[in-house]
Amino acid sequence: MAASTSLPTVLALMGPTASGKTALAVELVQRAPMEIISVDSGMVYRGMDIGTAKPDAATLAVAPHHLIDVRDPSDPYSAADFRRDALACITDILARGRQPLLVGGSMLYFKVLRDGLTELPQADGALRAAIEAAAAAQGWPALHARLARVDPATAARLQASDSQRIQRALEVYELTGEPLSAWHARTRDQALPFRLRQFALWPQDRDVLHARIGQRLEQMWAQGLVAEVQALCELTPANPDLPAWRSVGYRQVLAYLQGDYDRSELEERALFATRQLAKRQLTWLRSFDGIEGRDPFRLHLDELVRWILQNRD
């Protein structure tokens, strides 16, 4: 997508979980006329606060965030929903003479915003049921292997346990005779009405990042993540097939509450899943072009602020 200097500039701040994105964004909006748009697939849900590291009331008072608390966990929010809502927020913020600052770690949301959406065929209930029946009989790893035979490009980027995306990729192939990767390659050029300047907090020392992830999880347990999930379940029955309940942390706590394992294993599983999330986020970052990155663990917060403010136009 060709950029034009006549277009307004929108900033994107991305990075893996626990890399310090929120702290940097809060500092930025206090030093420059910016407004934060959350790019987080968990923070969109009301009541999911602790496990998503959602900014608290005091933080939101000094640095309001758009696109948090916009849905109940029972009401799915998609990447397409995000693109529509983010573009509307960006338009409003620019009209107020301020600069939008997109902040988060949901890399698919960033990709969809940048590159547009592929018009995929509508879901087919009967075919989906057949795929689910095959998965129940053979297991999702077997269906992942089937996908690898017809769409190796899509299978290579999916884990064998990623049932939702494996199901959709097989469904698209069965409906159209074409792999999902071919559909994505034909994504229409949905030119953005602004220039997107992309910044990333990009840790170079994986051990430091893992230590921070561990510290954050300890805080979440102390703050009452298990009680938060219990309260949500009392409001509405939890459905592990919904996007909200597949969020890292919530999925593991829900299984714990259902008696699948004990508290010690819960904490081990949540830690492993969060580390895997960070690994996927870093893989996404490496696949994006046009990103400027800095190691947040080797620079002071003031240095990171100056870096972005000096390059925001």
Largest sheet: 6 strands, parallel
Secondary-structure content class: alpha/beta
**Beta-strand content:** 5-15%
Fraction of residues in helix: 40-55%
Question: What's the total helix number?
Answer: 14
The strand count comes to 6
Instruction: Assign an overall shape.
Output: globular
Instruction: Indicate the mean pLDDT.
Output: 93
Report on this model:
This protein has 313 residues and is an alpha/beta fold. It folds into two domains: 9-117 and 194-309, 3-Layer(aba) Sandwich (Rossmann fold); 125-183, Histone, subunit A. 52% of the residues lie in helices and 10% in strands. It has 14 helices and six strands. It has helices spanning 21-31, 57-62, 79-95, 107-115, 125-138, 140-150, 152-156, 163-176, 180-185, 206-223, 225-235, 250-257, 263-287, 301-309; strands at 9-14, 34-39, 65-66, 99-104, 195-201, 291-294. Strand 2, helix 2 and strand 3 (65-66) form a beta-alpha-beta unit. Helix 1 packs across helix 14 (301-309), helix 5 crosses helix 6 and helix 12 runs antiparallel to helix 13 (263-287). The longest helix has 25 residues, at 263-287.
Give a brief outline of the structure.
With 313 residues, the protein is α/β, with parallel strands linked by helices.
Notable traits:
single chain, 313 residues, alpha/beta, Rossmann fold, Histone, subunit A, 2 domains, six-stranded parallel beta sheet, 14 helices, globular
Secondary structure topology:
Layout: E1 9-14, H1 21-31, E2 34-39, H2 57-62, E3 65-66, H3 79-95, E4 99-104, H4 107-115, H5 125-138, H6 140-150, H7 152-156, H8 163-176, H9 180-185, E5 195-201, H10 206-223, H11 225-235, H12 250-257, H13 263-287, E6 291-294, H14 301-309
Parallel strand pairs: 1-4, 1-5, 2-3, 2-4, 5-6
Helix pairs in contact: 1-14, 3-4, 5-6, 5-8, 6-8, 10-13, 11-12, 12-13
